[in-house]
């Protein structure tokens, strides 16, 4: 059965400014419902880029993890994390620990790695009292809406991610690489096209250049696929940026992005990127029990500021190699 005909077996609600919505009738058995609708759900994601499933009644980490595992062939272990997460079980994580009053701007998960998830899965166990949506943006649409001169430069040069690891802010070396053994960290960096420099205080600085535009490995569509805006210094709240620059210096920020040739990215460019994302954002407030599946290459996601308790679990699946996405920038591993 083709993906389109499989997708047509489920009734997906489409409304401007909102993600595709599917109302489930799970009758208290989310796992059986997920198993029965697995192919149809994945077909909806292939067609629309995402789907929000409402009515599953997901309530705990164990049951949610079982649903995640049923919907994917295998869950990925996150590498090169930029912010800590709680691990519930293999491949099942909390959302990144990020200040509730600060947005996590649009990005594609692990788009700075050489192997990244093709599918993101989110489940809301506890909805905040206000805000906190996991909003979405279609990356081919965003690419088309950006000025051609800017995207052509990023296609030529790629983008550069710089990171400075310390024990105070962001992920530590051990959290990011799964070890604090220098030899193991260096081996990982060489194998993954990351240049590194150990600092006198024992800290680590890394640089990695990646493609900003890739081809979707299935559809072939060109996608704006990166974390240029999200991990850039100008996306931070001004007071946070000033504090970090005072503390670590302009070159020692926990993370920052640049043009692929190393040139700084001006504040107005970052504002433009974020404004184009906002103009093409689809959002729907979380309700407890919701499940969301997202094509991580076609669809960017964000986390909006919130108030009150918020528990959203995350899983990554369907690993994709950058080399299979026709990258525009060559990477050299050693």
Automatic annotation (TrEMBL):
<feature type="region of interest" description="Disordered">
    <location>
        <begin position="1"/>
        <end position="20"/>
    </location>
</feature>
<dbReference type="Pfam" id="PF02668">
    <property type="entry name" value="TauD"/>
</dbReference>
<dbReference type="InterPro" id="IPR003819">
    <property type="entry name" value="TauD/TfdA-like"/>
</dbReference>
<feature type="domain" description="TauD/TfdA-like">
    <location>
        <begin position="24"/>
        <end position="316"/>
    </location>
</feature>
<keyword id="KW-0560">Oxidoreductase</keyword>
<protein>
    <submittedName>
        <fullName>TauD/TfdA family dioxygenase</fullName>
        <ecNumber>1.14.11.-</ecNumber>
    </submittedName>
</protein>
<keyword id="KW-0045">Antibiotic biosynthesis</keyword>
<dbReference type="GO" id="GO:0051213">
    <property type="term" value="F:dioxygenase activity"/>
</dbReference>
<dbReference type="InterPro" id="IPR050411">
    <property type="entry name" value="AlphaKG_dependent_hydroxylases"/>
</dbReference>
<keyword id="KW-0223">Dioxygenase</keyword>
<keyword id="KW-0408">Iron</keyword>
<dbReference type="InterPro" id="IPR042098">
    <property type="entry name" value="TauD-like_sf"/>
</dbReference>
């Amino acid at each position: 059965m083709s993906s389109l005909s499989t997708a047509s077996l489920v009734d997906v609600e489409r409304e401007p400014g909102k993600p595709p919505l599917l109302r489930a009738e799970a009758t208290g058995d989310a796992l059986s419902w997920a198993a029965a609708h697995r192919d149809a759900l994945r077909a909806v994601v292939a067609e629309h880029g995402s789907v929000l499933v409402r009515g599953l009644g997901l309530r705990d980490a164990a049951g949610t993890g079982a649903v995640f595992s049923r919907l994917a062939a295998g869950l990925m272990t996150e590498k090169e994390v930029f912010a800590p997460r709680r691990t519930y079980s293999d491949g099942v994580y909390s959302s990144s620990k990020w200040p509730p009053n600060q947005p996590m701007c649009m990005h594609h998960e692990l788009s700075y790695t050489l192997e990244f998830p093709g599918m993101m899965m989110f489940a809301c166990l506890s909805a905040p009292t206000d805000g906190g949506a996991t909003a979405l943006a279609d990356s081919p649409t965003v690419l088309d809406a950006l000025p051609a001169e800017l995207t052509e430069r990023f296609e030529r040069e790629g983008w550069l991610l710089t990171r400075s690891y310390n024990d105070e802010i962001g992920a530590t070396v051990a959290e990011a690489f799964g070890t604090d053994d220098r030899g193991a960290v260096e081996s990982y960096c060489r194998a993954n096209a990351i240049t590194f420099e150990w600092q006198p205080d024992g800290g680590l600085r890394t640089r990695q250049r990646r493609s900003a535009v890739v081809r979707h490995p299935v559809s072939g569509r060109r996608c704006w696929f990166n974390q240029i805006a999200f991990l850039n210094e100008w996306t931070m709240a001004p007071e946070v940026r000033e504090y970090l620059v005072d503390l670590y210096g302009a070159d020692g920020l926990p993370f920052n992005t640049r043009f692929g040739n190393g040139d700084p990215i001006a504040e107005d460019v970052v504002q433009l990127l974020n404004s184009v994302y906002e103009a093409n954002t689809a959002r729907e407030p979380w309700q407890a029990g919701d499940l969301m599946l997202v094509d991580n290459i076609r669809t960017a996601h964000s986390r909006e500021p919130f108030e009150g308790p918020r528990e959203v679990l995350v899983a990554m699946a369907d690993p994709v190699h950058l080399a299979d996405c026709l990258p525009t920038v060559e990477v050299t591993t050693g």
